[in-house]
Amino acid sequence: MAAETAVSKDSLHIPLIDFSLFTSGASTAKQETARAVLHGFTTAGFIYLKNHPIPPDVVEAVFAQSARFFTRPKAQKEALAWTTARANRGYSALGQEKVTQLTDRGEIEKLRDGVPDLKESFEIGREGEEGCPNQWPDEKLYSQPNTINGMTNGVTNGTSTHSTSTNGVAHTEAEAKEFKTVMQDFFSRCQSLHMLVMRAIALGLSLPESFFDSYTDTGDNTLRLLHYPEVSKQVFAQNQAQVRAGAHTDYGSITLLFQDGRGGLQVQSPEGTYVDATPIAGTIVVNAADLLARWSNDVIKSTKHRVVEPPAPLEGEVHPPRYSVAYFCNPNSEKAIDAIPGTYEEGVPGREKKYEMVKSGEYLMRRLEATY
Ligand SMILES: O=C(O)CCC(=O)C(=O)O
Ligand SMILES: [Fe+2]
To answer: Which residues form the Fe2OG dioxygenase domain (predicted)?
Structure first.
C-alpha cells in the first residue's frame, strides 16, 4: 500500500507516503503512489514523505550547520542581512518577518509591532542569479578584515586565520566555507526532489510525467534555515496570541519542510481547528503552496499552518530551541502560470478557469513585498 496516515484529526488526514515506490517502484506502485501524492494535496494540502532520496546524514549535516550558524554574533548575522524581496536572500532577525495573509502594509506593521514571531532565519537562493548574490558568511565576513574588525564581538585579526567567536567557540573561515558547501549540496538535492514531487503530481493528474519539468528545472527556489530560540513557558502563558510563527500559507509550488523532534507545527483542518503535525523522524513534510493552488484552479489546496508552543510535556520553565529547514519551491521565475490542463472546463458551471495567467516570478515578488 502506498499510503499510511501521519496525522488524522478533525477531518484532516495527512498521508505518510513511501516515496521510494514512486522513484523506483514497479509501474503500478508508481502510479498508485502518484495518486496518493495528488490525493494528499487535493484534500489536506499536506503529505509526509518517507524513503525519499535525501539521505539522513545529509539532513543531519544541514541541521548541525544551521544550529552553528545561528550562534554567530548578532553583528555578523546583521552583516548578512536580508535586503530586498527581489534578492530574498540573507538573515532576518527575530520579529522582522510576519508571515500573514494580510497584504496591506499598514495592517502588517501593526501586527508585527503587536506580537512578533519568535524566530530568526537565513535564506539562500539559486547561485548565479544576476544581481542577487547569496549572503555567504565566508565571502561577506572574512574577505574584508575591516568589516569584521568593526564588529562588537570578538574577532581575531590575523592575516590568514580570521576567526570569530561566541561563547569562546571560534567560527573559522574554513567552517564558513563548509557551511556553503553543505548548503549548496542540499539546495540541489531539494531542487531535484521538487522536480520528482511535481512529476508525481503530473502522473496523478493523468498528464505526461514530464509535464512540469520545463517549469521546475531552473531551481528558482529558496532554502530557509529557521531557528526558534529557547523560550520561557511564561511567554506563551502571558499572551494567548503568542506563537513561534504566525498562521500563513506558502507562496510558490510546494514546500519541503524538515523539522526536528520538538514539535509545534500545526496545520489547519477543514473544520478550522489547528492540528499538530507531529514530527516523524526521517520524513519530510511537503505542503502545496498558493501558486500551485492557483495553477491547479484550486483543485490542489494550499493549507494554512503555523508554529506554536510545543505540545510535549515540559520539564522546567524553558522550551528548548527548535530548528527547522524549509525549502520553498517555485516554478521557474520567467514562466507563465496558467491553469493546468484538465483542472478546468470552460462552459461547465463550477469548473471554469478562475484565474488570469501570471508570471511566476512576478507573483512571488508581489507576495514577498507584502511580507517584509
Ligand atoms: O518551522 C516550521 O516548521 C514551519 C515553517 C514555515 O511554515 C515557513 O517558514 O513557511
Ligand atoms: Fe510555511
So the answer is: 219-331
Q: Is residue 134 part of a domain?
A: yes
Please give the distance, rounded to the nearest whole angstrom, from the Cα atom of residue 163 to the centre of ligand 2. 34
Question: Is residue 260 situated within a structural domain?
Answer: yes
Angle at 143 between CA 142 and CA 145, to 5 degrees: 70
Amino acid, res. 342: G
Domain with 262 in it: 4-142+161-335
Residue 370 belongs to a domain = no
Side chain identity at residue 236, one-letter code: F
299 CA distance to ligand 2 centroid (A)? 20
Looking at the domain assignment, is residue 151 inside a domain?
Answer: no
CB-CB contact of 117 with 172 (8 Å)? no
pLDDT digits (tens, 9 = 90+) for 335-370: 999 999 999 999 999 899 999 999 999 999 999 988
Q: What is the residue with the minimal CA distance to atom 1 of ligand 1?
A: 324
Pocket lined around ligand 1, Cβ cut-off 6 Å: 224, 226, 245, 250, 257, 259, 265, 305, 307, 324, 326
Query: Which ipTM score applies to this complex?
Result: 0.99
Q: Alpha helices, DSSP H only, in the chain?
A: 20-23, 27-43, 56-70, 74-79, 105-114, 137-141, 145-149, 173-204, 213-216, 233-238, 290-295, 360-371
Q: What is the tally of structural domains in the chain?
A: 1
Give the nearest ligand 1 atom to 328 CA.
10
Domain containing 264 — which CATH number?
2.60.120.330
Look up the pTM and report it: 0.91
